[in-house]
């Protein structure tokens, strides 16, 4: 039997989670919504073992994540945090560095196509990343994660700084990433986005409830 890509089994982290369980399969996305402070961002940090979960509570490809080398885990499961980090440097440098660290090659033409799909058709490789607008920087951070082609993408409010058109672009790209076998867990507060994307887990203190 194929195990799920990511599985949370009875995760208890007082006072945030009590016996929290859900799974995410390859080719699937799930959105997480819920009131501020219920632990949505914290949960994503447990999933990449930034915070260490109790043994046996978080599984990646059928392995307890506490038994996986954290760097290797974070190569396969990439988090774009709410307060993402861009290097001081050009757009191309920002996209290229994490690929090179993983021993992967960088193609500006692939990157440029992706950025165009994200509503940044005019962006130049040599443009300074810190001079882009907040919304443009957020899409650059997402493009950087997508170019890594991780097995699982963890997105913390990836469209919080986007207008409707660009939110739709992001949604389309995540649907395609999942259609190609990726798995995505995505925190969102946007009711229209939750409606459009579906597959919502509503997080309350003490558990996850399907809507
Ligand atoms: N490792 C941890 N263990 C237990 N509690 C934590 C841990 N890290 C953060 N917290 C607390 O958990 C609470 C939830 O924070 P978190 O940022 O995860 O909420 P959130 O649901 O993502 O909120 P928002 O929607 O406002 O982004 C905060 O009060 C934080 O201090």
What does this structure look like?
- The protein has about 210 residues and is α/β, with parallel strands linked by helices.
- It has a domain at about 5-85 and about 150-210: Rossmann fold, CATH 3.40.50.
- It is about 35% helix and about 25% strand.
- It has helices spanning about 40-45, 70-75, 90-100, 110-115, 135-145, 165-180, 190-195; strands spanning about 5-15, 15-25, 30-35, 60, 65, 75-80, 150-155, 185, 200-205, 205-210.
- The strands form 2 sheets. It has a 6-stranded mixed beta sheet, sandwiched between helices.
- A hairpin with a 3-residue loop joins strand 1 (about 5-15) and strand 2.
- Helix 3 runs parallel beside helix 5 and helix 4 (about 110-115) packs across helix 5.
- It starts with 5 loop residues before the first strand and ends with a strand.
- It binds adenosine-5'-triphosphate.
- Adenosine-5'-triphosphate binds next to helix 1.
